[in-house]
Specification:
CATH class of the largest domain: Mainly Alpha
Helix content: 40-55%
Largest sheet: 6 strands, antiparallel
Shape: extended
Oligomer: single chain
Structural class: alpha+beta
Number of strands: 8
Radius of gyration: 25 Å
Length: about 270
């Protein structure tokens, strides 16, 4: 009986918490829409960001990207359009808006000419490999015990091996793509809502220190990759002033340097 009461209390509390959080997110969204329509972009942005901290959605990122564009913060606009596309890859509005903002920011496309797999994850390809492997193996065993012609058995075995190799390649490639996405960042001006954000350059320094001279620079809104160490960890450093530094490079690997974490936005994080 005590166990039943505990279970009932826990269920009721969980439902109340779920409804409260859902209502809070919806209220933040409606408040943000109201503030946006009244022209109070700064507070609307704050509401959208708080709603995103509770649960991510493509529309929230898209609305936030629109507001950042209206405030001339092209870097953050590009960042959130890309976040929205990670959640809804086939959304044409997000794609066209992203292309337009990139044109305004003069950063071009972030396409690195890699093979696209329509958003299928490595877990999906692993499932396909498992199904194909066991189905093919059963078919080969059936043909062998039924003493089907050697030609048919050899051809089936060859197709089975080739199919397995293709799925292994797809798993490897999708895993690489996921890792690349997790290391993608967008160059941002650390000064929020600045009129100069649309034309600002972010310095890529030779060393992880503000006193270091610039190795090169990138435009706000440009997509970068955080480099890894030989052991596979992210290349980062904490300076004496407690600033977190990251070693980044452009997608074509032609420019590389250190940036403060405040100067970039992570594509894979809210």
């Amino acid at each position: 009986m005590n166990f039943f009461r505990l279970f009932l209390f826990t269920s009721i509390f969980a439902n109340i918490l779920f409804v409260t959080l859902g209502s809070s997110k919806e209220q933040l969204f409606y408040d943000a829409v109201r503030l946006e329509s009244s022209g109070d972009y700064e507070n609307a942005i704050s509401n959208y960001k708080e709603a995103l901290s509770q649960a991510a959605s493509a529309n929230l990122h898209g609305n936030l990207a629109n507001l950042y564009y209206l405030t001339n913060d092209y870097g953050r606009s590009i960042l959130h359009y890309q976040k929205a596309l990670l959640l809804e890859q086939d959304n044409r509005d997000f794609r066209s808006n992203l292309a337009y903002v990139r044109k305004m920011a003069k950063v071009g496309t972030s396409n690195n000419n890699s093979l696209e797999l329509n958003g299928f994850t490595h877990n999906f390809w692993k499932g396909c490999l498992g199904s194909f492997f066991w189905t093919g193996l059963l078919i080969i065993c059936y043909l062998f015990f039924r003493r089907i012609r050697n030609k048919t058995l050899i051809l089936t075995s060859f197709c089975w091996i080739a199919g397995n190799l293709i799925f292994v390649f797809l798993i490897f490639h999708s895993t690489e793509q996921m890792d690349l996405t997790n290391r993608k960042v967008v160059a941002l001006n650390p000064v929020n809502l600045s009129e100069n954000n649309s034309s600002a350059n972010i310095q890529l320094r030779k060393f992880a220190a503000k006193s270091s001279s610039a190795n090169t620079s990138v435009r706000t809104g440009e997509t970068l990759i955080v480099e890894r160490t030989q052991s596979g960890e992210l290349q980062k450093h904490k300076s004496q002033d407690s600033k977190n530094w990251l070693l980044v490079s452009t997608l074509d690997k032609r420019r590389e340097g250190w940036v403060i974490e405040e100067e970039i936005g992570w594509l894979s994080r809210n």
